[in-house]
Amino acid sequence: RRLAELEASLGQRAGIVAFAMNPGMYDEHGRPIGLAVVEGKQKRAINRRKGGGNFHLMPNGVFQVHKDGRAEVVTSERWRPSPSIRLATQSGPMLVIDGKMHPAFDHDGSSRHVRNGVGIGPKGEALFVISDGPVSLGKFARFSRHRLKARNALFFDGAVSALWDPANARRDVTKLLGPIVVVFK
């Protein structure tokens, strides 16, 4: 539930980590509250319930990676199970949907946090992002759309955004984390 614990648990494989970050919402025990697919096995079903908080600010979405390496961000409404999905995590809200900003965001609202997320770039590449300081959802979404050129982008977290970037000697210390996505070199 901490990046330092992740590093220790990986042993020698820690040397080939490109980066790791927390990819979505979770409960008090660190379990995902939305869809979770790990190595092709669904660990938690898609969550399409309405409620309060960022996760339930519809549309929310799913980041998924297929067995052939193709990455996607899709709205939860559009998500369908497939044997080709190797990894998936649900979070919310969507930042950018089919090239358009999430309609509920203020231009630069008063809720500001260090935020992280993922967008799919123009060449189909997954672009993981974490802000250097507190930003609004509107500003984070604009960055995803205008700077990353993402047609679809998903917010991961805002109160507990964390990054382990070994190449730059960064390992954030935060509250306990839930799911963690690890990208190897």
Largest sheet: 5 strands, antiparallel
* Rg value: 15 Å
Q: What is the topology, as strand order, of the major beta sheet?
A: 3-2-6-4-5
Q: Please, what is the average pLDDT?
A: 93
Instruction: Give the structural class.
Output: mainly beta
Give the % helix: 10-25%
Distance between the termini: 22 Å
Shape: globular
Q: What's the multimeric state?
A: single chain
| Helix and strand run | HEEEEEEEEEEHEEEE
Number of E-state strands: 14
Number of helical stretches of at least 4 residues:
2
β-strand amount: 25-35%
Poorly predicted tracts of residues: none
Topology of helices and strands:
Layout: H1 3-10, E1 17-21, E2 36-38, E3 41-44, E4 61-66, E5 71-75, E6 85-91, E7 94-97, E8 100-101, E9 116-120, E10 126-130, H2 137-147, E11 152-157, E12 163-165, E13 170-171, E14 181-184
Descriptive notes:
The protein has 185 residues and is mainly β. The chain is 10% helix and 33% strand. The chain is built from 2 helices and 14 strands; from the N terminus they run H-E-E-E-E-E-E-E-E-E-E-H-E-E-E-E. The protein has helices at 3-10, 137-147, and strands at residues 17-21, 36-38, 41-44, 61-66, 71-75, 85-91, 94-97, 100-101, 116-120, 126-130, 152-157, 163-165, 170-171, 181-184. A 5-stranded antiparallel sheet has the order 3-2-6-4-5, with no helix packed on it. The protein is globular, with a radius of gyration of 15 Å. It starts with a helix and ends with a strand. The mean pLDDT is 93.
